[in-house]
Every structure is written in structure tokens, then in C-alpha cells.
UniProtKB/TrEMBL annotation:
UniProt superkingdom: Bacteria
Domain spans labelled ATPase BadF/BadG/BcrA/BcrD type: 8-281
Annotated TM spans: none
Pfam families per record: BcrAD_BadFG (PF01869)
SUPFAM superfamilies according to UniProt: Actin-like ATPase domain
Lineage, top ranks: Bacteria, Bacillati, Bacillota, Bacilli, Lactobacillales
Name of the protein described by the UniProt record: ATPase BadF/BadG/BcrA/BcrD type domain-containing protein
InterPro entries according to UniProt: ATPase_BadF, ATPase_NBD, Euk-type_GlcNAc_Kinase
């Protein structure tokens, strides 16, 4: 295995850093995981984990046989850390390409072909590449001004439904009871106090409670259906901007909300179909690190 030429992809996520080496024919050679790789939340620890993951790969494979390293890093451009991170990784051969986490997923899920990638996890964003190779995006503006249809948005909608129920003088419904129980809150005032004390990731986790209730609670199902409709909007915007006049739509899906929630997916695809798009859905089937393989061949 030491004489096989290969590429390395690194998915620098908020939970873990996943590095994988693939042969030039796309066969997985080795995969290594280390700690969180989000350079915005904890730069020093993230860099240490990224270096550790790459080091483990090169401990098992000949570094001189590596043809390309591609890294997907959340917020790499908006954070202004591109040059700094590149300098940190200068000791690793060979050429390195730094992308956003969404761009890395685009290549992996769409398998190097044209289309739109939609992500809905804690946040949400849609990305595509135009005919000139320029990246285009819609959504992804953060939980204060965007991220519609994300786990955070679903959680916020659930809490708003509790408050609306109170304002209208209604008895607490099943969903409200479950949300209060999740927060261990005695009433909506306690709920509001506790929800403001959480960071966005912990608040977004409430979406799992709402999703679990959807089979038996119409209110929860309605929130999820609304999330799917919200997610359709950035996809439609990108399709009209990047692939104007084309009704065939290759849509890659990534992120926990889309991967685990059938109601959201069906609502999303239904909205796109109503707009007369011929939708082909592509699901994430392998590590986003495989983007390195597709990028290498795109450059050949």
C-alpha cells in the first residue's frame, strides 16, 4: 500500500475531524478521526486535531505518494483565517486546497457533477458552482438573520408555538408539554428563561424532540412541513440564478435534518415539484472527505 498514489480529504467538523485517503480510482485506503476541527470556535485545538489527523494518515501511507490534500473548514473565508491556517499546514505535502465545509460536501454528495447541495443541520445553506466555476450560495446567513429550515429554526418554531398557545389562552398541548419537559421548565416563562441561556447548538437539539413527536402530534408535523418549504426557497433561488431555464434539478442533501427527517424531505421535494422542477435527489453515501478524489479528477 505504501507505493500507491492517493489523495487526502479532511472534513473539519464541529464534533470531529475526519481525514481519509483515497486512491486515484476512488478506493478508500485509510480513515482517521480526531477531535473537533472548527477553527472559529477553538482555533488552537482545531489546528492540533487537523494536524493529528493528517499525521496519522501519513504514518500509515507514504507522504511522497500523496497528490493532493483538500480540507473543508467551516467559515474559512468569513473568519479571515485562510492564510493563517494555510501557513499552519505548510509542513504537510503536497498542494493543499481549502474549501468551506459546504463546498467540500458539494463535491462529495454530488460526486463531482453539476447540481445544488442543500445542507440543513444546526444551520442551513445551499451552494452551487456556475458555468465559470464560481461558487454561488443562497441562505446560510446565521441563526439571527437566516438558517431557515434548520434544526435551530425548527426548535425556535416549536418554542414560538408554546408562546402562541399561552397568548391565545389555550391549554398546553402535547407538543408544549413535551418541550416544557425537555427544558425541565414549569411554565412558558421558565422555558423562555432557560432557552435564552443556551447556545444555538444546544437549543437546536430541541428539533429532535419535535421530530419525534411528529407522528402523533399534528402541530409538530406542521412545523417540519414548514421547514421543508423554507428549505425549498434557497434551492429555487440558486436554480434560477445558476441553471436558469433548466427544469432538471440534481439536488444533493446533507445534514441531520435532511438525512433523518422524512417529513422535511417530502415537503422540500414536494415544493420543488410544484415549481415544475424534475428533481433527482442524491443522498450522502460516503464521507465528505471523498471530495478530494472528485476535485483531483476535476483538475486533471
Amino acid at each position: 500500500m505504501n507505493d500507491v498514489t492517493y489523495v487526502v480529504g479532511v472534513d473539519c467538523g464541529g464534533t470531529s475531524t475526519e481525514a481519509a485517503a483515497y486512491t486515484l480510482s476512488g478506493h478508500l485506503l485509510v480513515m482517521e478521526k480526531t477531535g473537533p476541527g472548527n477553527v472559529i470556535i477553538g482555533y488552537d485545538a482545531a489546528v492540533r486535531h487537523i494536524k493529528e489527523a493528517l499525521g496519522k494518515i501519513f504514518d500509515r501511507l507514504d507522504p511522497s505518494a500523496c497528490q493532493l490534500i483538500t480540507l473543508g473548514v467551516a467559515g474559512i473565508d468569513s473568519s479571515g483565517l485562510r492564510a493563517k491556517l494555510s501557513a499552519e499546514l505548510a509542513g504537510f505535502p503536497p498542494e493543499k486546497i481549502l474549501l468551506s465545509d459546504a463546498q467540500l460536501a458539494y463535491y462529495s454528495v454530488l460526486q463531482g457533477e453539476a447540481g445544488i447541495l442543500l445542507i440543513s443541520g444546526t444551520g442551513s445553506i445551499a451552494v452551487a458552482k456556475d458555468a465559470e466555476g464560481n461558487w454561488q450560495r443562497a441562505g446560510g446567513w446565521g441563526h439571527l438573520f437566516g438558517d431557515e429550515g434548520s434544526a435551530y429554526d425548527i426548535a425556535a418554531a416549536g418554542i414560538k408555538s408554546c408562546l402562541k398557545e399561552y397568548d391565545e389562552g389555550k391549554k398546553a398541548g402535547l407538543l408544549t408539554q413535551q418541550i416544557l419537559a425537555y427544558f425541565q421548565a414549569v411554565d412558558v416563562f421558565d422555558l423562555l428563561k432557560k432557552s435564552y441561556q443556551l447556545d444555538k447548538s444546544r437549543l437546536a437539539a430541541l428539533s429532535k424532540v419535535i421530530a419525534a413527536s411528529a407522528d402523533t402530534d399534528p402541530q409538530a408535523a406542521e412545523i417540519l412541513q414548514a421547514a421543508g418549504k423554507k428549505l425549498a426557497r434557497p434551492v429555487i433561488n440558486l436554480q434560477n440564478r445558476v441553471y436558469a431555464g433548466q427544469m432538471g434539478l440534481r439536488l444533493g442533501l446533507n445534514g441531520s435534518v435532511l438525512e433523518k427527517n422524512l417529513i422535511v424531505r417530502e415537503s422540500l421535494v414536494g415544493c420543488l415539484t410544484e415549481e415544475h422542477f424534475d428533481v433527482t435527489v442524491l443522498n450522502k453515501e460516503t464521507s465528505c472527505a471523498k471530495a478530494a478524489y472528485y476535485i483531483y479528477h476535476e483538475r486533471m
